[in-house]
Amino acid sequence: MVESTIPSGREAPPTSGQGWLGASPDLDAAIGGTPLILLRRASQATGCRIYGKAEFMNPGGSVKDRAAAAIIDAAERDGTLKPGGTIVEGTAGNTGIGLTLVGNARGYRCVIVMPETQSQEKIDFLRMIGADLRLVPAKPFKDPGNYVHVSRRLAEETNAVWANQFDNLANREGHRRTTAAELWQQTAGRLDAFTCACGTGGTLAGVALGLRALAERDGSAAPRIVLADPEGSALYGWVKDGSLVVEGSSITEGIGQSRVPGNLQGIDIDDAERIPDAEALDQVFDLLIHEGISIGGSAGINVAAAIRVARAMGPGHTIATILCDGGARYQSKLFNPAFLRERNLPVPPWMS
Ligand code: PMP
Which residue among 62, 65, 123, 195 is best mutated to probe the pocket of ligand 1, counting the most ligand atoms within 8 A of its Cβ? Predict the structure, then answer.
C-alpha cells in the first residue's frame, strides 16, 4: 500500500527546473533551482553586486544538465524518443554527462562522442556512469571527422535520436524557461547585466530571451547581455563586427566556436569581452582560496567578464554570471602546476 502512494514522477510532465526549491520526484527533476551566490571579492573590487549561479550544484555537476533534460523532454514530447531508446550526442563532456544521467533515470542508453583532448576527469566520469563513450581525434568543424559530424552519422546509421545540442532549440528553450526565470526571481528583477561564454550558445541565448521577456513584463530595463569569449573563438568578432575569424587558443573546455550555432542565431547580444586564460585562471584560483568556490575554466572566463562589465558600468550595478561547472573536473589541467607552467600560465599560489 505504501508503494502506491509514492509517485514515480513520470506520470506528470517532466519537471526539470524545480531544483533545490522543493521535493523532487526523481534525480533529473532535481536539475536547476541552483543557488545564486554573491561573489564577495569581485563585488568589493568593483562596487557592484556580482553574482554567480552555482550550476556546478546540478546533479551532473554542470549547467549542461539543464540542456540535457530539456532536449530529452522535447524528444519525448515529439515522439522521436521511444521507451528504451538510444540517444547519441557529440559533446565536450558535460552535455554527455547530463544526457547519460537523465537517460539512466528514464531508461535510455547514451552513446557519447567526444574529442580525446577533453579532461581525463570528464572521460573517467562518463565511463563511470555507463555512457557508451567514443573518443575521436580533435578536428575542426569543417572536417567530416569532427565529433559533431561523427555523432550525427552514428545516430543516422543506428536509427538513434541525435540530441544535436548546437542546433536543437530545445536547448535554449530550457534555459529561457528555467535559468532566466530563476535569475530574475533571485535578483528580484533588479539585474543590470549578464555575462556568459558560449559552447552551443544555449545558455546565453535562452537567458537573453528569458530576461528580456521578464523585464518587459515588469516594465524594467532589459539587462545588458554580454558574451564572454575565450581566445581561439570567433564569436567575439561576430558580436563586435559580424566577422568570423579564429585566432589564438585557450585551455578552457566546452566554450568557444568557429561558427554561429543555431541556438545563437537571431539573438541580439549587446557586447562581448575576450578573456585570456591567465585572467580567467586568476578568478578560478581567487574564488577557490578566498571564497571556497571551486569552478572550472569557463566559469573563470564568465567571472572575469562580469568584473570587466562591472568596471565599465560603474559602482551600484547588479551583474550575474554562470558558474558552469566545478574545478574538480579539471584537476589534471587547471590545478596541475606542470601543465600550467608548460603553457606560461599562472599556477595556484598555494601550489607553486
Ligand atoms: N562551460 C562548460 C564547462 C561547458 O561544458 C559548456 C557546454 N559545452 C559551456 C560552458 C557552454 O554552455 P552552452 O553550451 O550553453 O553555451
Answer: 62
Residue ending a domain, choose from 128, 162, 196: 162
pLDDT in tens, 63-107: 999 999 999 999 999 999 999 999 999 999 999 999 999 999 999
Q: CB neighbours of 168 closer than 8 A, spacing ≥ 6?
A: 71, 74, 262, 263
281 and 212 share a domain?
yes
Looking at the domain assignment, is residue 104 inside a domain?
Answer: yes
Please work out whether the CB of residue 324 comes within 6 Å of at least one atom of ligand 1: yes
SS3 assignment, position 116: coil
Residue 8 lies in a domain: yes
Residue 215 pLDDT > 60, yes or no?
Answer: yes
List of long-range contacts for 44-48, beta carbons under 8 Å, 24+ apart: 45/307, 46/307, 46/310, 46/311, 46/315, 47/310, 47/314, 47/315, 47/316, 48/310, 48/313, 48/315, 48/316, 48/317, 48/318, 48/319
**Averaged confidence pLDDT in the chain:** 94
Which atom number of ligand 1 is nearest to the Cα of residue 67? Answer: 15
Residue 345 domain boundaries: 3-62+172-351
Residue 278 covered by a domain: yes
Q: Is residue 29 domain-shared with residue 177, that is, in the same domain?
A: yes
pLDDT digits (tens, 9 = 90+) for 109-166: 999 999 999 999 999 999 999 999 999 999 999 999 999 999 999 999 999 999 999 9
- Among residues 162, 185, 202, which one ends one of the domains? 162
**CA–CA distance, 300 with 327 (Å, rounded to integer):** 10
